[in-house]
Amino acid sequence: MESKSHDFKVRSGQALKDPFLQSALENLSLGFVESRRKCAEALPEFEALRDLGKNIYDHTLENLDFYLRRYEEKVIESGGHVHWASTPDEACRIATDICDQAKAKKVIRGKSMIGEEMGINDALDEAGFETTETDLGEYILQLAEEPPSHIVAPAIHKTKDEISDLFQVYHADRGFTERQTERTALVQEARQVLRESFISADVGITGANFLIAETGSNIIVTNEGNGDLTCTLPKVHIVTAAIDKVIPSVEDAMVLLRLLGRSATGQEITAYTTFTTGPKRAEDDDGPEEYHVILLDNGRSTMLANEFRDMLRCIRCGACMNHCPVYGSVGGHAYGWVYPGPMGSVLTPMMVGLDKAVDLPNACTLNGRCQDVCPVRIPLPKLLRAHRTWQHERKFNSSVFRFGLGIWTFFARHPNLYQFCTRIVMSVMGSLGRRKGVFNRMPFAGGWTQARDLPTPQGKTFQAAWRAKQREKKQ
Amino acid sequence: MINEHVNPSVGLFVTCLADLYRPSVAFAAVKLLEDAGVTVEVPRAQTCCGQPALNNGDLGHARVLAMQVIDAFAEFDYVVGPSGSCMGTIKTHYVELFEDDPEGLMKAQDLAERSHELISFLTDIMGISQIDATYDGTVTYHDSCAGLRELGIQEQPRRLLDGVQGIAFKELKDSIVCCGFGGTFCVKYPEISGKMVDDKCSRIEESGADTVLAGDLGCLLNIAGRLRRRGETTRVYHIAEVLAGMAGGPSIGDGEN
Ligand code: SF4
Predict the structure, then answer these.
(1) A405 band by pLDDT with thresholds 50, 70 and 90
(2) Residue A221 CB coordination number (10 Å)
(3) Residue ranges lining ligand 1, Cβ < 6 Å
(4) What values do phi and psi take at B81, rounded to 5?
(5) What average pLDDT does the segment A59-63 reach?
(6) Are B56 and A392 in contact (CB under 8 A)?
């Protein structure tokens, strides 16, 4: 997927003016935030689980090479194939080659963020395969030709009316001519259309929530059960996953699963948790004949070695964006690429280029709520600050801003000069604005006064007033 | 950790916003501290804690400003400031700045241990649970982010406000959600910041309070500015002004008439 992250300011401006999006975002914060809170409060060991989750990843990342090799061995042992890709393009090529070799025509997909990162739908389309998304949200977006705006609830920005319109247009030739407006009727209609795709598909491509080194298994969690069908019905199953998805054992997976559902949607556990290990065995009734895993790096091994390693703990629960007031104001599309919200603002520059997503790490108040809810305790504000430091070192931030900051710092380093100058400026501002109490406009403060008035200062600086008082006392 | 010093000395970290914008907040801090039985001094060689540089990736200048604060406040038993944001920087981020400089790190750690945000200093260190003050109004309180999440300040201000005569306290819905100030964020992304502070103002309005308080002037200037832009007359004060009985004059964003 092509990044539009350089356009954050324009896109966020548009998002703020979109009333449908704004009401969808309001519901999001009400729904997910509340249910997560309740779920976390109901589990006394939730905080301890978070520590455990963090430790599992810290240990795994410290020994990532070992666990990846172990995982590969186990997949091969169970009859599967493992393919390594350093770039999204390479991963897509591997996937389309597998489909070619299987003489596939139809491909179905289970929702995965790694697929978005790879841009796999476009690659499959270009290679001439008929691809269908099977997750309801992703399916809606496929019809609408839009990218997801949330990593857990991809179509959160879509209203029911828009979905009714889409289904009416695209399902007419499948015999659904009536426009449905009820939630359940819409779901029912999608289910029937998708059922045909499941049955006729040659290849099923899923992501992975976790890869287990101990057994060579892949875990996916869904609430619709579409993942199960995508894994088991077609004769070829391709798992696409990033190298940081591997964890040591099934026991570790249990800890992380308990964190994932609660943090993502406020569910104790998702409706379906599906383990797949290799292709169908002789004694199995069903399952794929071929089982492939494509492991994508895409900059992660670089992050493993720098200050962004903590980010590789991410289990893609979406809690950080659900609790982010900036995400809550502008939604996911403003961020311009696959991953939105706080985790996206850390990841996107690493993946699409530091100079191509300059706004993202800056468009944050560093309020820290994301870190507070992150199940694996990723210090997101610290990582966003680290990006800002990289940008400053590379001079990516605007020269006007750097100049302003430079002047401020110069004065701040010379207290006498600072106090002398500020005393004059504040006294002028104070007397100009005293009667009204605020300024509506102010030279050099357009950014401030665009959104709010500027309160008038009291006029004296504290330093000046304090010294005067001390002198009085002495006399 | 309760105070162990006899007649402890406190260096007041004024904070640049109180110094420039609202000295009454710093005077209120001095009064509260003196009433608590400490000796207050105001070192002259202080300006800003360096947060603008730190948060914009200019670590070189952030270190210089941090060292200036470390030197200016070397002599005091405690360093106290009326801001969770500045004191959070001093307490939690200075040490990160000197990770590769053992001598600087030692000094930063020493300062961090002695540094406190004003309200939590009064309650947690000086053991104060009630302050003799009066304020006539229905009050709500916004939890500023750094104070809340870096320093764990949430219950302390409410406890002290509870003891003020004449106050009817109303909780603010979403009081822990950022007001959209974020230092330079608010001028770099005015539209997003505007939406966030507007939401905050709506919650304040819904609370039915006639006064909103917080422990950080950055948030307060932001909130007051937006309230006035919306045409609302809600009074806006720093919590220290109310606790010190110094909330008689015009509130933030109010004119003299
Ligand atoms: S950064 Fe943390 S909160 Fe955000 S998606 Fe990843 S695991 Fe979830």
Answers:
(1) confident
(2) 18
(3) A 263, 314-320, 343, 374-376, 378
(4) -140, 150
(5) 98
(6) yes
A429 touches chain B (CB under 8 A): no
**A181's torsion region: left (phi>0), alpha (psi -120 to 50) or beta?**
alpha
Residues A200-229, mean pLDDT to the nearest whole number: 95
C-alpha closest to that of A454 among B192, B188, B223: B223
Per-residue burial over A101-128, b = 16 or more CB atoms within 10 Å of its CB, e = otherwise: ebebebbbbbbbbbbbbbbbbebbeebe
Mean pLDDT over A150-157 rounds to 92
Which distant-in-sequence residues (6+ apart) come within 8 Å of A32 by Cβ? A153, A264, A265, A266, A318, A319, A322
Domains parsed from chain A with CATH numbers: 43-300 (3.40.50.10420), 414-474 (no CATH)
User: How many CA atoms lie within 13 Å of B116's alpha carbon, on the beta-carbon side?
Assistant: 22
pTM for this prediction:
0.95
User: Is a pLDDT exceeding 90 seen at residue A26?
Assistant: no
Q: Which residue of B lies nearest to A450 if distances are taken between CA atoms?
A: B190
Q: If pLDDT is split at 50, 70 and 90, which confidence band does B257 have? A: low
Q: Which of B192, B222, B256 sits opposite A452 (nearest CB)?
A: B222
Question: What does the block give as tokens for B201?
Answer: 């103002």
ipTM: 0.96
Q: Tell me the residue type at B235.
A: R
Q: How far is the CA of B29 from the centre of ligand 1 (A)?
A: 39
Closest by CA to B151, choosing from B196, B119, B128, is B119
For residue B191, what pLDDT is reported? 96
Domains and CATH numbers, chain B: 9-124 (no CATH), 129-243 (3.40.50)
pLDDT of residue B133: 96
In the prediction, which pLDDT does A398 show?
82
Given this model, what pLDDT does residue B105 score? 98
Give the pairing of strands A236-242 and A290-296: parallel
Residues A149/A332, Cβ–Cβ less than 8 Å = yes
Q: Please enumerate in sequence order all residues whose Cβ is within 8 A of that of A445, keeping only pairs 6 or more positions apart, or say none.
A: A439, A454, B187
